[in-house]
Amino acid sequence: MEEKILLVYYSRTWTTRKIAEYIQELINCDMEEIIDKKQRSWILWYIWAGRDAALKKNTEIEKTMFKNWYYDILIIGTPVRDFAISPAIRTYIQENKTNFPSKIIFYCVTWNSWEREAFQEMIYTCSQTPIWTIYFKTKEIIKNTFQDKLKSFLEKTIWF
Predict the structure, then answer these.
(1) Which residues, other chains included, contact 118 with Cβ-Cβ below 8 Å and sequence gap of 6+?
(2) pLDDT band at residue 43, thresholds of 50, 70 and 90?
(3) Domain boundaries, the chain
(4) pTM, 2 dp
(5) 89-126 pLDDT, tens per residue?
(6) Which of 85, 95, 106, 152 is the most buried (most CB within 10 A)?
């Protein structure tokens, strides 16, 4: 029996989305973007987004379509700002963690080397240790050099 996989992600820009789209292309999973209802696209909002991430604040997100309990594996993707996950992903995890499947995977995109702090925050927030984690530097996505790393990761996890 093939495992059912749901991938959820938040992407203020396009980097975390690009990873999600490539994962979906490779493993043909269900995918849902977490939408932050707070405007975060202008420079001032971008600064406030970093502040909210650093202060570990939640935000209001749009209702999601897919039900976590239906899936065998949940993949969660987030950008990392100021050593922290995005407020939208933090909110998603807190609102849905009681229905998470037993197998979860985290991925993140970071300018700096903040992936360890982000993964620790995700583990703490959802009270569950992932079966796998992977991170990408923003420059890997900008230069379009992330595909081999991601494909190798997915092959190691025996998904395709």
Answers:
(1) 78, 80, 83, 84, 85, 106, 108, 110, 135
(2) low
(3) 5-155
(4) 0.88
(5) 999 999 999 999 999 999 999 988 778 999 999 999 99
(6) 85
